[in-house]
Amino acid sequence: MSTTTTDTPRTGRAPRPRLLHGLNWLVARQHRATLLSLLGATVLGSIWLVYERSRMKEILEAAGSGKELPAFDSNDVGLIISALGALPLLLAVFVGAPLIAGDQEHGTAQLVTTQSVTRLRWVTAKIAWAYGAALATGVVLSAVFTWWWKPDRSMFMYDWSSGSIFDNTGPVLPALCLFLTAVGITIGALVRRLLPAMATTLVLSWFIGVFWDERVIANLAPTRTLVYPLNAEMPAQLDEAREVDRWIGSADGQLYGWGLCAEPTEKASDACIEKHGIVNNVYEYLGYDQMPAMQWTGAGILLAGTVVLTAFVLWRVSRRPL
């Protein structure tokens, strides 16, 4: 007489198959609260953006038909842009910094790595999940905001090259999310304590954001120069341009500072212009059509930084115990 064994439980029902197995299931379960929070933020943020876009469309259509409606509330736009701008920093502080530092402080890393999982495999899985969550959140929210902003950009008070728009559209927001998350992970691996790692990440991420907006964005593409007559109106092609510098110039190509002939009287100003032979305005700028190339260049720099930081963390984990 033979017996047959099966994996079916005594209830007679087959076990529900799991979407994730092994280490991936363990990491997802450990960070399920964070993952669910990011999922909720992505869904609610997308709904908010779609609602505000439809609200702006209604106002624009009503204004075109002659109906009187209150102007679009710029405070709402400012709040949205602030929330999107804060997203990479929040990911750095609450996802990146605790990822390894939390395990080190609470002993989770030692517990897991004394089983059949190596340190490198454990950290690689955790980093992959963190990057995947950060990337998904950044891609979705950036895509929805770009879909809203691009056709109606004239309604926004922010210039395309300002951090408020440049950082939150196209590939830059996902790249910033990944890079600052990598910064947080790196600091967490070095500091090894949760709260100090989060505090250090907060300060450093803020400084990185300021440096990026004030020093990096304007240097992501070569500037252009346009020369037009001194008393002529500014050409239409400069309507959406970012001014880098401006001069006044003579017929022989000599450039002078914009305020050279800013005399208190018109007569004195005309005399100054005649004395120096000034005939042109010279305008150095970045054009709106350069924005996509600038964004992809900036995203490439941020992704390269992410790769370097990730490689450093994995190297350090492979050499030193958690």
Could you give a short description of this structure?
This protein has helices at 22-30, 32-64, 74-106, 108-113, 119-149, 163-166, 172-191, 194-216, 266-276, 291-319, and strands at residues 224-229, 242-250, 255-257, 278-286. It is of the alpha+beta class and 322 residues long. A hairpin with a 4-residue loop joins strand 2 (242-250) and strand 3 (255-257).
Describe the protein in words.
This protein is an alpha+beta fold. The chain folds into two domains: 22-221 and 290-319; 224-288, no CATH class. It is 62% helix and 8% strand. The chain is built from ten helices and four strands. It has helices spanning 22-30, 32-64, 74-106, 108-113, 119-149, 163-166, 172-191, 194-216, 266-276, 291-319, and strands at residues 224-229, 242-250, 255-257, 278-286. It has a four-stranded antiparallel sheet. Helix 3 packs antiparallel against helix 5 (119-149), helix 7 packs antiparallel against helix 8 (194-216) and helix 7 (172-191) runs parallel beside helix 10 (291-319). It is elongated, with a radius of gyration of 27 Å. The two termini are 54 Å apart.
